[in-house]
């Protein structure tokens, strides 16, 4: 059974890492032939394109599939995708991300693809946008939704948001957590040499944040809370992993606040090196206001690190207050600082929350579990499709 995945770009990010893990993992499932089409990857966020071997060729780059709205290129990408599907005749087209999700599903529908699946990694519409953009993307998702056989949600929150927007029916949704290779995170340790490399003393409390330096990821909120944290625990450092268009702006703000020696901008970290950095963190914060279910949270828990997160989208499906970490309302700097100071002063609390989280993640976030659940869904939908064709 041939399956073609489509994604807008392969930057280093949660949706992209999920897609790469899915495509590579499904290669080992009997009876499946898997391909991936992506638009070009550019910018400071890094690229996952090197994850794919030269042979067998799994990845095809489609230059017309660009992330910004571009009517001429979007029409070209739509026609090219439709042509690819008509020629390859896949049983399933499985789309990811906003632009590829809309164009890919509509092209697959016109090409007569029997089964069209879309994974909702995060909301493509919502209050984080202006009114016009929110209307446009919601309308596009509704139109593409009419051509969709089934949706995979990385969190129940995504299912609720899309159903509330009038997209699909409840029976069309399946939640499958975004799995990853647990072993490197389970083995993460507090590496004294890596700490020294970044100027972190052994006794300092390290608050980690793993996110691209872009709008809506909450870096400004962390900078606002940092002075309050330092008042409660002066031996704190903030370790920011990721890069993006806001880096110079955030670095300038940190210097202006007198925090240049407290906030460490590590930059882009390849996925394979992420576990060792999580190992030198004492707690991980995630302050995004738009996220399906941030992979940084289960990754931190796999490394036995407690988490503090904004109560947005799917965060509360892994961050259980008092059990694996703490949830706070977006923008509440004082509450964020209070929780971080509490964690800084209580090693036993950090250990208890981290261990609870590790146990939970072991049960639900193994990449093998995710791949098996997706393959099972493919086979179930294919069986239903064949029955309808008889």
Explain what you see:
This protein is of the alpha/beta class and 390 residues long. The chain has two domains: 2-179 and 366-389, Glycogen Phosphorylase B (Rossmann fold, 3-Layer(aba) Sandwich); 183-364, Glycogen Phosphorylase B (Rossmann fold). Helices cover 43% and strands 16% of the residues. The strands form two sheets. A seven-stranded parallel β-sheet has the order 3-2-1-4-5-6-7, sandwiched between helices. A six-stranded parallel β-sheet has the order 10-9-8-11-12-13, with helices on both faces. Strand 6 (150-153), helix 5 and strand 7 form a beta-alpha-beta unit. The radius of gyration is 21 Å and the shape is globular. The model has no long low-confidence stretch (mean pLDDT 94).
Describe how the helices and strands are arranged:
Layout: E1 2-7, H1 14-26, E2 33-38, E3 59-61, H2 71-88, E4 92-96, H3 98-110, E5 115-120, H4 131-145, E6 150-153, H5 156-164, E7 173-175, H6 183-186, H7 192-197, E8 205-210, H8 219-232, E9 236-241, H9 247-256, E10 263-267, H10 274-279, E11 283-286, H11 296-302, E12 307-310, E13 325-328, H12 333-344, H13 347-364, H14 367-389
Helix pairs in contact: 1-14, 2-3, 3-4, 8-12, 11-13
Indicate the CATH topology of the largest domain: Rossmann fold
Task: Please bin the fraction of helical residues.
Answer: 40-55%
Percent strand: 15-25%
Number of strands: 13
Count of helical regions: 14
Q: Kindly give the count of domains.
A: 2
Summarize the entry for a quick read.
By secondary structure, the protein is an alpha/beta fold. The chain has helices spanning 14-26, 71-88, 98-110, 131-145, 156-164, 183-186, 192-197, 219-232, 247-256, 274-279, 296-302, 333-344, 347-364, 367-389, and strands spanning 2-7, 33-38, 59-61, 92-96, 115-120, 150-153, 173-175, 205-210, 236-241, 263-267, 283-286, 307-310, 325-328.
């Amino acid at each position: 059974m041939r399956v073609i995945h489509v994604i807008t770009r392969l930057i280093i990010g949660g949706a992209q890492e999920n897609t790469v893990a899915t495509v590579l993992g499904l290669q080992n499932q009997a009876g499946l032939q898997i391909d991936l089409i992506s638009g070009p990857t550019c910018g400071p966020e890094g690229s996952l394109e090197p994850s794919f071997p030269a042979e067998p060729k799994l990845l095809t780059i489609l230059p017309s599939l660009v992330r910004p709205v571009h009517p001429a290129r979007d029409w070209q990408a739509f026609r090219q995708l439709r042509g690819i599907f008509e020629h390859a005749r896949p049983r399933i087209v499985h789309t990811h991300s906003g632009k590829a999700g809309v164009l890919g599903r509509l092209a697959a529908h016109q090409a007569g693809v029997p089964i069209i699946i879309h994974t909702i990694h995060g909301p493509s519409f919502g209050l984080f946008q202006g009114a016009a953009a929110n209307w446009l993307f919601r309308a596009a998702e509704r139109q593409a939704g009419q051509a969709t056989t089934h949706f995979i949600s990385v969190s129940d929150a995504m299912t609720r948001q899309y159903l509330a927007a009038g997209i699909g029916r409840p029976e069309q949704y399946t939640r499958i957590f975004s799995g990853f290779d647990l072993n490197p995170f389970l083995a993460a340790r507090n590496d004294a040499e890596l700490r020294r490399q970044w100027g972190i003393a052994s006794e300092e409390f390290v608050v980690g944040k793993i996110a691209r330096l872009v709008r809506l990821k909450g870096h400004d909120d962390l900078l606002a809370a940092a002075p309050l944290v330092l008042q409660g625990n002066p031996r704190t450092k903030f370790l920011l992993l990721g890069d993006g268009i806001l880096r110079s702006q955030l670095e300038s703000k940190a210097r202006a606040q007198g925090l240049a020696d407290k906030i460490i901008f590590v930059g882009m970290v390849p996925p394979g090196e992420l576990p060792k950095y999580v190992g030198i963190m004492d707690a991980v914060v995630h302050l995004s206001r738009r996220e399906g279910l941030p992979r940084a949270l289960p990754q931190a828990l796999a490394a036995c690190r407690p988490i503090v997160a904004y109560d947005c989208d799917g965060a509360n499906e892994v961050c259980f207050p008092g059990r694996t970490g703490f949830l706070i309302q977006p923008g509440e700097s004082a509450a964020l600082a209070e929780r971080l100071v509490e964690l800084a002063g209580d090693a036993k609390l950090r250990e208890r929350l981290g261990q609870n989280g590790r146990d939970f993640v072991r049960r639900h976030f193994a990449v093998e579990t995710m791949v098996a659940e997706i393959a099972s869904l493919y086979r179930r939908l294919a069986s239903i499709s064949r029955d309808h064709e008889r």
